[in-house]
Design a protein that fits this description.
Layout (H helix, E strand, L loop, with lengths): L2 H13 L5 E3 L4 H5 L5 E8 L4 H4 E2 L6 H5 L13 E2 L5 E2 L4 H8 L3 E8 L7 H10 L11 H11 L10 E2 L26 H16 L1 H15 L21 H20 L6 E7 L13 H20 L6 E7 L19 E6 L7 E3 L20 E2 H11 L5 H8 L15
Parallel strand pairs: 2-8, 2-9, 6-11, 6-12
Antiparallel strand pairs: 1-7, 1-8, 3-5, 4-5, 6-10, 9-10
Length: 416
């Protein structure tokens, strides 16, 4: 794939625009069952540190791996216990509440088939549903909806699609039509320019990129006005832009939910949130990642409140292109990795569970001696949701939606 092909995706990754695209037709078989299911997919662009989001506090190698950067149950602030082995980042009390009430589930040590570390190729595989980047111009969600239509499993009334943001993500590109809505809150052009430069330097001069990112970090996500030097390297300072990030996440997610909740509105959608590329001063318990997870937690609250009665038949899947390194790097961040977490929330879930075939954290158990080893194929999770929630046929999932995935069985029991 050439640069021009990826330019829209890069722009969305760097500018920070979310995007929602949804199809208003729903599976006829679901309606025959007296159901009206909704499915929303949120892509976290930039690669999420799954160990920073959901810590394996019961693993005997956890503290030795991350030292004083490890989330722990008696930390300041304390991690939120999920079960006897895992705990949630303290920035996400709303997700914790949903988990405890059976309306959220977490899949750990998960990944797509992609095993390199390019954001753009990783997102291509995540959104296309294929095993390698650059193999198609359509996305798995679009093909799933197209299959429902062609097999006569959708309601023929209406065929509108909805998009929030200015760029169409690959996951929904294809034959199903889309329309867009642009949120009122967008990051300013000056940040767009800085991020474009950062992207350029990361490909041409990594050392200069590291310096630029260090200077940009607290300016882009960084302390509230009056909290000190906005270019300070102190990751504990409250970031000046986090209120704007929170507002943007909540507005985009809340708008998505309002459209999905309408009786004649869309039923399926996908959107993206950017900023998860935490190479420097990640700040798991206070700082960059902590603030981003808090903004995502606020987006979950906005979805739940704006879905109204439709919440009980809603499933939201939150995914990312890959994880980050198991160890903290020399700039107190994490680099591009492999295994990570997927968050599932919604009233339609069979939740209250953390799903993991835990690989362990000893050096010999890490993938390439650096990453959390993936033991769950993310396609199994997505196929399980599409099969059991939207009633997409298993054969279609293996051949058209996720081609070449016949050996990846849909994960059962995810929905109630």
């Amino acid at each position: 794939m050439g640069f021009d092909h990826h330019l829209p995706t890069r722009r969305e990754l760097l500018v920070g625009s979310g995007a929602l695209f949804a199809w208003s037709q729903m599976p006829r078989i679901a309606r025959a069952e007296g159901r009206d299911p909704r499915l929303l997919v949120i892509v976290l662009r930039g690669a999420l540190d799954g160990l920073g989001a959901v810590a394996p506090v019961g693993d005997p190698d956890w503290i030795s791996l991350r030292g004083d950067r490890a989330l722990v149950l008696d930390g300041k602030p304390p991690a939120l216990p999920l079960d006897a082995f895992f705990a949630l980042n303290p920035a996400m009390p709303n997700l914790h509440r949903l988990y405890k009430s059976g309306k959220a589930a977490i899949v750990h040590a998960a990944a797509t088939p992609y095993r390199e570390r390019s954001h753009f190729d990783g997102q291509d595989v995540l959104e296309s549903g294929l095993v390698k980047p650059g193999m198609t111009s359509s996305g798995w969600l679009n093909r799933a909806l197209l299959a429902l239509e062609s097999s006569g499993r959708v309601d023929p009334r209406g065929s509108r699609a909805l998009g929030i943001g200015s760029v169409t993500p690959l996951v929904v590109r294809g034959s199903a039509p889309v329309m867009t809505w642009v949120p009122q809150r967008l990051l300013p052009a000056s940040e767009d320019t800085q991020n474009r430069l950062l992207d350029l330097y990361q490909h041409t001069d990594p050392k200069l990129a590291t310096v630029l990112q260090a200077r940009m970090r607290l300016a882009s996500l960084g302390g509230a006005p009056g909290a000190g030097d906005p270019m300070s390297d102190d990751p504990t300072l409250p970031p000046p832009g986090i209120a704007r990030v929170r507002a943007y996440f909540a507005e985009a997610a809340g708008t998505a939910a309002r459209y999905l909740a309408k009786p004649d509105g869309p039923r399926v959608g996908a959107m993206g949130f950017v900023g998860w590329d935490t190479h420097i001063a990640e700040g798991v318990a206070s700082g960059q990642l902590y603030n981003l997870l808090g903004a995502l937690d606020g987006a979950f609250a906005a979805i739940e409140s704006n879905m109204g009665e439709a919440w009980r038949e809603t499933v939201v899947a939150v995914v990312t292109e890959f994880g980050r390194t198991a160890r903290i790097n020399g700039t107190q961040g994490t680099d591009h990795g492999t295994g990570t977490v997927a968050f599932l929330i919604g009233g339609g879930l069979n939740g209250g569970r953390l799903i993991a075939d835990w690989p362990g954290l000893k050096p010999a158990q890490l993938f390439e001696d650096r990453d959390l080893k993936p033991t769950t194929d993310l396609r199994a999770v997505l196929k399980g949701l599409l099969r059991d929630h939207l009633r997409v046929e298993e054969k279609v999932l293996a051949e058209a939606v996720f081609p070449g995935s016949a050996d990846v069985k849909p994960m059962g029991g995810l929905v109630g």
